[in-house]
Structure to design on (126 residues):
């Protein structure tokens, strides 16, 4: 596995939560290279589709290092072991709601046309 980016690479940029649970992924093989969506905006979860552009968050390059039928890949984007699910999502909803309620950028960024407030993870369709 190669971890080169992701949400832990820059704690000032918080991602959107794509889903409060993992994506079960099959069909990847040892040596495959995947780009894990770290911003939470991709419509092709858990993989990057380029939607991160302009957010300051970059995808994580994952080189599959072992043969395995199924992988549980993080979709909440708050894992501490990207791209894998570490069950962080189980306690995440109240944390995310709180950080959005106290976000100092909410009056500016949340009412503009921004696609993601990286101060709290708010997105227009949250
Ligand atoms: S990192 Fe989310 S779309 Fe690229």
């Amino acid at each position: 596995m190669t971890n080169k980016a992701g949400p832990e690479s820059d704690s000032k940029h918080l991602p959107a939560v794509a889903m409060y649970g993992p994506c079960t992924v099959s069909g990847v093989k040892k040596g495959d290279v995947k780009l894990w969506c770290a911003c939470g905006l991709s419509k092709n979860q858990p993989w990057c589709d380029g939607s991160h552009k302009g957010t300051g968050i970059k995808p994580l390059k994952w080189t599959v290092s072992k043969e395995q039928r199924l992988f549980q890949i993080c979709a909440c984007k708050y894992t501490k072991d990207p791209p894998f699910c570490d069950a962080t999502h189980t306690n995440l909803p109240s944390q995310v709601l709180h950080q959005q309620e106290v976000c100092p950028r909410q009056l500016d960024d949340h009412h503009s046309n921004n696609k993601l407030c990286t101060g709290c993870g708010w997105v227009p369709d949250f």
In short: The chain is about 10% helix and 15% strand. Residues 37-39, 41-42, 48-52, 57, 59 surround FE2/S2 (inorganic) cluster (CB under 6 Å). The mean pLDDT is 90.
